[in-house]
Design a protein that fits this description.
The complex is a heterodimer of chains A (311) and B (426). With 311 residues, chain A is an alpha+beta fold. Chain A is built from 9 helices and 9 strands. In chain B, helix 10 packs antiparallel against helix 12. Classes of the chains: A alpha+beta (311), B mainly alpha (426).
């Protein structure tokens, strides 16, 4: 009796497993559509002089929206200077220095990469992070965000930052000054103030062409790679550098967007909500049949009760 | 439905462990208050590199698996139609109810902007690409379903209880504060009649909730694995696989059965009741088969992805992988032998091993195998641990109190030994 039930159980378990397995590859790999008309930025590390004007302009333009504070240095009790050491709940963009020797160094600017297929947008449970269909800007809406921080778990660049020291915290990340400078002046604040044109702004296609032209016209100057062209399916923030990108703190990433992989599996299981409904209906039928069986069984045993033998 | 399978545990409410647990709960309450005043950073070791710590890993991802006893036993009783496990189901559902309700509470503590949580109920904000959306909705609905599943026990008590504690309380109050006896009795009578009216109605539709209570965990337990699918660049290849949802699903079922065994043995021991060896050995017979399937998928998948070598590299990750593997396989192998399944001691040891190994698997996926890049480390702070401990204390406290107030534990007349215990009310 017991062995029988165990075999049934196994059979049911394997059937479920097999069901999941056979459905999984059925959904053909959905390639992401790269939109080269998206708004984009190109940062050329060889042109950057590390003046950090972009950081100041960014906080001036967006500090209020993100409730961002000045990050004080230890000696600076009055908060005269903003001295962030990394992206944080107070800082959307940062210039860092990579130094190998006195003669060999490079600056690098970090901020949101505005991925073509953004992981943060894919995982946000309430749609507080969105990708604008027209501009490609990945934006954050604090009035919707529940603060679950799944975007931080998901982002391969560790970009979204959380305000850990606040009672009413929010996520901080670049949105190309969508509601501030871009709206008012048609260009993000950092691009507007850069004295050396190290950051330029335009459509992704224009900037890719420009970046390729720079590499071709200056043989040996640049690493032969535009970071962001292919990484995780392409990003709208593009980089040129004379120093290998991994030394500047960019992770080495594949060309497939992680969100494509996770959505493929998740949607396969939940496509049209058919599987859950089918599961519920099947289980209902089995359970109801069992109940009827049980009722009959109890009636019988009640009838036989005088005989005194029942299971 | 079969109320005569269950009974209340007779005993006083205010034991020494009651007050110890209560103290822990109050400490947790203080820490949670601090978190809401000063921010999450003030009480936790979380950072932008490790945005999810033990509150998510333990209280939600592991806590709900440990609370899967109700799910796992419901499959046996209502789908596999093994009615002789029916006496176990109420205590399993009770622990599931606490596990899930408190997982929900931890999420609210963990969420940075909980006042926006209402967005889950606004269809235009539904983001069906997000695995977390699915987990959140399923866990919320399952908690409600568990409460409905447990309602018959509460209604039964409301209807049949003699309300001795309430009367004692009223007598204890100063006469000027105490309400009139007659009004109290008439109110009690109303409550009784209402409970007596709802209970049979609920019994008729209960099966549909029970089945919902089987469907929902199937969905969200697998989705708890899917949550980490996106972290393909951060989660170690030993654990990052497309099979995460399947592995989490099977994992929660064998943890559920093991937990049901552990819980039953502990409460038999604590409440000095005879061990339910017959039921437990039946459950224990299922576990090794489930773990065998699970381990096969793990090893097969590692081989397929060419990561088998990483498992035996004997570095940090390999150590935790092997530990997880050894605990689960070790516990399961013990249960393959029939003789072992009849010994409460072996049952307990192997159940503990499987619960630990299965939980370690979840820790490995959510924390230990998760590496956001150079420069980030995480270890929970004391206050963060304190909040988790107080949540567990609250679970145990609630269980302890409720088994004494409503009929939850299996009725003892099913066993040959021990004094026959009178029905507490007729």
């Amino acid at each position: 009796m017991k062995r029988q039930s165990r075999r049934d159980f196994l059979r049911a378990a394997t059937a479920t497993g097999a069901g999941i397995l056979t459905v999984a590859p059925a959904l053909a790999s959905s390639e992401i559509q790269v939109n080269n008309d998206d708004l984009a930025m190109l940062y050329d590390a060889t042109k950057c002089v590390g003046c950090k004007t972009c950081m100041v302009a960014c906080k001036n333009a967006n500090g209020e929206d993100g409730n961002q504070e000045v990050e004080k240095a230890k000696f600076d009790k009055d908060g005269l200077w903003d001295t962030p050491v990394d992206l944080s709940g107070n800082t959307r963009t940062i210039i860092k220095l990579h130094k190998e020797s006195d003669g060999k160094y490079s600056y690098v600017k970090h901020s949101c990469m505005h991925c073509q297929k953004a992981s943060c947008v894919s995982v946000c449970p309430v749609g507080a992070l969105t990708k604008d269909a027209e501009t490609g800007i990945v934006d954050y809406d604090k009035s919707i965000c529940i603060g679950c921080r799944y975007c931080q778990v998901a982002c391969p660049f560790n970009i979204p930052k959380f305000q850990w020291d606040r009672a009413m915290p929010q996520i901080i990340k670049c949105n190309f000054c969508k509601r501030t400078n871009l709206l008012e002046k048609g260009v993000p604040a950092c691009v507007e103030v850069c004295p050396t044109q190290a950051i330029i702004f335009g459509s992704r296609k224009e900037l890719l062409d420009e970046a390729r032209a720079r590499i071709n016209q200056n043989p040996g100057k640049y690493v032969d790679q535009i970071y962001g062209e292919k990484e995780v399916g392409g990003t709208n923030y593009l980089f040129l550098s004379a120093v290998p990108f991994n030394k500047l703190g960019f992770p080495k990433l594949g060309e497939e967007a992680p969100a494509v992989f996770s959505e493929k599996i998740h949607h396969t299981i939940y496509k049209g909500f058919i599987a859950p409904i089918a599961l519920y209906t099947t289980l209902c039928i089995i359970a109801l049949r069992n109940m009827r069986k049980q009722a009959r069984h109890e009636e019988q045993s009640a009838g036989k009760a005088d005989g005194g033998k029942h299971q | 439905m079969h109320h005569d399978d269950f009974q209340k545990h007779e005993g006083t409410l205010f034991t020494r462990s009651f007050f110890a647990l209560l103290a822990l709960v109050l400490l947790g309450g203080y820490l949670v208050t601090m978190r809401f005043i000063k921010g999450i950073g003030a009480v936790s070791g979380l950072s932008d590199g490790y945005p999810w710590g033990i509150w998510i890993t333990y209280d939600v991802a592991t806590g709900t698996a440990i609370a899967c006893g109700g799910y796992a036993v419901a499959i046996l009783v209502y789908i596999r139609h093994n009615m002789h496990y029916h006496p176990m189901i109420r205590s399993c559902i009770l622990t599931s109810m606490f596990g899930y309700a408190l997982a929900g509470l931890s999420v609210i503590i963990d969420c940075g902007r909980p006042w926006n949580v209402y967005n889950f109920f606004i269809p235009s904000q539904w983001q069906t690409n997000s695995v977390l959306f699915e987990v959140a909705v399923c866990v919320m609905s399952y908690t409600v379903v568990l409460i409905i599943e447990f309602l018959p026990a509460i209604l039964y008590s409301l209807e049949k209880s003699e309300w001795l504690r309430l009367h004692a309380f009223i007598n204890w109050l100063h006469p000027s504060l105490a309400p009139k006896k007659e009004t109290v009795i008439s109110h009690i009578d109303k409550v009784r009649r209402a409970a007596g009216w709802i209970r049979p109605l609920l019994d008729k539709v209960l099966i549909f909730f029970i089945v919902l209570g089987i469907t929902l965990p199937t969905m969200h337990q697998s989705a708890l694995g899917s949550l980490l699918l996106i972290a393909s660049t951060k989660l170690h290849p030993l654990w990052h696989t497309g099979f995460l949802p399947l592995l989490f699903l099977i994992n929660c079922i064998y943890i559920g059965y093991s937990m049901a065994i552990m819980e039953s043995i502990i409460s038999s021991y604590a409440f000095k009741r005879p061990f339910e060896v017959k039921e437990l050995s039946g459950l224990a017979g299922i576990i090794p088969w489930l773990t065998a399937i699970w381990l096969t998928v793990v090893v097969g998948d590692l081989t397929f992805r060419g990561q088998l070598a990483a498992a035996v590299r004997f570095d940090f990750y390999s150590f935790f992988f092997l530990l997880e593997f050894a605990l689960i396989a070790g516990g399961a192998i013990m249960l393959f032998k029939k003789g072992n399944r009849l010994s409460p001691r072996v049952l307990f040891i192997s159940a503990v091993m499987i619960v630990l190994g299965g939980s370690l698997y979840r820790f490995n996926v959510y924390l230990i195998g998760y590496d956001p890049g150079p420069g980030w480390t995480y270890f929970p702070s004391l206050a963060e641990l304190g909040i988790t401990v107080s949540i567990v204390a609250f679970e145990i406290l609630g269980y302890q109190v409720l088994v004494k107030l409503v009929p939850v534990l299996p009725k003892l007349h099913l066993h040959g030994h021990g004094k026959p215990i009178e029905k507490y009310s007729e």
